[in-house]
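During the no-cost extension, the postdoctoral fellow (Dr. R.K.) reprocessed legacy sequence entries with the updated structure-token encoder. One reprocessed record is reproduced below for audit purposes.
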Amino acid sequence: MRRTLPLMISLIAAILLLFLLNLFLGTIHIPMKSIVSILTGGDGGSEIWRNIIISSRVPQACTALMAGMGLAVSGLQMQTVFHNPLAGPSVLGISNGASLGVAFVVLLSGSLGGVALSRMGFIGDAAISIAAIVGALAVLSLIVWISEHVKGKVTLLIIGVMIGYLANAVIGVLKFFSAEEDIKAYVVWGLGSFARVSGGQMVLFIVLMLILLPLSMLLVKTMNLLLLGDTYASNLGLNIRRARRQVIISSGVLVAIVTAYCGPIMFIGLAVPHLARALFRTSDHRVLMPATMLAGGVLALLCNLIARMPGFEGALPVNSVTALVGAPIIASVLFKRRRDSE
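Re-encoded structure tokens follow.
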């Protein structure tokens, strides 16, 4: 407890600091006085600056925060249910299912309808989000059905990976027969971005995450029992299949919503649980769940800030930044764990 509380406070302070930096810093320089004036309802000096802050930076920061929290919790749930440190939100092919749904809509729109979906503005964005959710939930339903008929979690993990490969194969075929403009639109979506969500979409995304994240906290006791191993947990009265199904559904829905709105965001769900365990030195999910959630928000805000730092023309792809930040975190944690075990 002596270590937990100060670290929790530090993560909350880091979120507040990075959130403000996401508002104050960007590719276009806006004086801090004007930003404060705009945020407090004042004039701000320029309508362009007001649009940048209200319509771009605030939605990006809120989206990054919620998406980082959701992916981090999803990654922790996957690593717990499969007892695998390399398991992440995409381990069961759910992200690939979302990508497949988007591929069907984006890559076939030009070929069948004659009009590229990327040119259809809000309607195109809504169609992409719906397609991603449908694709992810379809794969999630298949995984849940398979989990009812497969005893070993390793077998389920392998089946999930195979589903991911199958989805990628279908996407490859669709790319081969698609127009160049549609392929470009799909590739851009696949790079991931926190900038796609704005206005009513942002409100809906935040509301969904504010519902799903607290619900995931209800599985803390179940995850602590799963951590003990199937045999021991079963002896304590836990229904292993039902518990595994609940955790997979929770993780899968979080991934589906985040992927639908932001595209496939890599490394956050894989790296953050390791970072939380290293910081808090515990495997108790009563501590790890909120810690992972906060650390996910910190890392996502940091990556979003780096992606559009002053000096860059436009914004870097988020997945490029998450890989640059997440890979060293995983490597350092694994090296530290090896030294501690020697």
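The chain has a mean pLDDT of 81. The CA atoms of residues 107 and 182 lie 5 Å apart. The remaining legacy entries will be reprocessed before the final report is submitted.
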